[in-house]
Specification:
The protein contains 5 helices and no strands. By secondary structure, it is an all-alpha fold. Helix 1 runs antiparallel to helix 4, helix 1 packs parallel to helix 5 and helix 2 runs parallel beside helix 4. The longest helix has 26 residues. About 30% of the residues are buried.
């Protein structure tokens, strides 16, 4: 897949995440946990932004981002902060893909999150699937509550 195609897909799905965030009529609903679901929508949003800013922004784009993974699942921030975090994540993603070409995606990813080497392209496909998996959970969480 070409770098600009990845950019379009990540930005599209971050836009969908923003749509989900804005569909919550009450900020406190973002933090409710539903029986059988371990994470609130707010924590899933924090996790998605932290994940992308770490694995794409910091590792590939050298942004200097420092991930707080435990806080992604245990912390709580305001609606405005979630909004800003999604926007920042989209900017980080856009900036990264604007600086690379498709041949860069065939290089080896600098980390081995799964315990084996892989190309950047392979790991970006995983990250896109991960984003969509949790985006679906946020959508489901919202629909259960309303």
């Amino acid at each position: 897949m070409a770098a600009q195609e990845f950019k379009k897909l990540f930005i599209r799905d971050l836009d969908k995440l923003m749509t989900e965030l804005k569909a919550y009529s009450k900020e406190e609903s973002l933090w409710k946990k539903v029986d059988g679901i371990n994470n609130s929508a707010g924590n899933l949003i924090m996790h998605l932004c932290g994940n992308l800013q770490h694995f794409i922004g910091a590792v590939l784009g050298n942004t200097g981002y420092k991930r707080k993974r435990d806080f992604e699942f245990s912390g709580r921030v305001s609606f405005q902060e979630l909004n800003e975090e999604i926007n920042l994540t989209a900017k980080v993603i856009g900036d990264y893909f604007d600086q690379v070409d498709s041949s860069d995606l065939e290089e080896e990813y600098p980390l081995e999150p799964f315990g084996y080497p892989m190309t950047v392209n392979y790991f970006l496909m995983h990250l896109l699937g991960h984003l969509n998996y949790h985006l679906g959970q946020v959508n489901y969480h919202r629909r259960i509550l309303f």
